[in-house]
Write the structure tokens for this entry.
Amino acid sequence: MWKYYDRAEAFVHPESKADYDRFVYEHKDDLNITDYKIHQIIALDEDKDVEKSMVRVYVTYYKYPSVSEVSEVLNDVWVKSGDNWYLKSKFDSDMYK
């Protein structure tokens, strides 16, 4: 089960840190990610000065007290800063609620 919230934070864009911290605070004890797979990466050309990509991820999870798994497709924007890529998200999909 995926519970590495502290490690994941290193990949969160600074502008999204507050939303990420809220998500972790509210769900760290009940969200259990059982599987994820990167399905597609789409380069976005919206801003010529910033490299961006849309990453489509298939994720399976359950939230206590339920143990019924739910599958969802996440479409998140990743932004390149220097040599690294960072997740820039509002953390507002169903999984994060």
Observations:
- The radius of gyration is 14 Å.
